[in-house]
Amino acid sequence: MDDSSEPATLREKAYASFTRHLLARDLKPGQFVSQRELVAFTGLPLGAIREIVPRLEAEGLLTTIPQRGMQIAHIDINLIREAFQFRLFMEREAVALFTVNASDAELARLRREHEDMLAQALSQAPTPEMEAKAQNIDWAMHDTFIDALGNEIIAKAYLVNSVKIRLIHQERFRIDGRVVPVMQEHLTVIEALEGRDPQKAVEAISRHIDNARRLALQI
Predict the structure, then answer these.
(1) In this structure, are residues 56 and 18 in contact, taking their beta carbons and an 8 Å threshold?
(2) 157 has which bridge partners?
(3) DSSP labels, 153-205
(4) Which of 10, 49, 78, 111 is the most exposed place for a label (fewest CB within 10 A)?
(5) What per-residue confidence (pLDDT) applies to 199?
(6) Do the Cβ atoms of 79 and 162 come closer than 8 Å?
């Protein structure tokens, strides 16, 4: 049996486990952490942790501070501005292409999903479960635009930025109490998609992302 792929598999598992714990807030922005602690969090070998540290540093998710150890990325103004600028650049082009190429069935699915969520939010008091579902619908639509490009380079870069965007959401603003306006903004995007109007879709997604950026920048 060929075990040559095992180290790479462990690296990917370690990376996936790190980001999962980060998004679950087991690891918090600005927190100092040791390699041994990451071993405990991930349940993976020290060698795999050591191998992902350079990747995490290159992606801006981790910084090594001399004589202090490794620090999880801070959520600061520069990170917010850069993460949202990257998101805007990627999604404007992605949504323009999606407008032209998406199937009618895919657009119908997006509309149904969002209208059902909006109706639920308008008809009942918010619950953590409902808001978690709405958040997943929110993120899934954006991911759909990028996935539809079929470009692995863009998908990987967008995924790294998505981790940062999700951290910003957790630290600066959440969908809690905002399900209705978020679903309405998404439905405006979906309406432009249904009209097969790339320019309107780009304008709608730009407004939606800018609204999120402005909320994140509020102190």
Answers:
(1) yes
(2) none
(3) HHHHHHHHHHHHHHHHHHHH--STT-HHHHHHHHHHHHHHHHTT-HHHHHHHH
(4) 78
(5) 98
(6) no
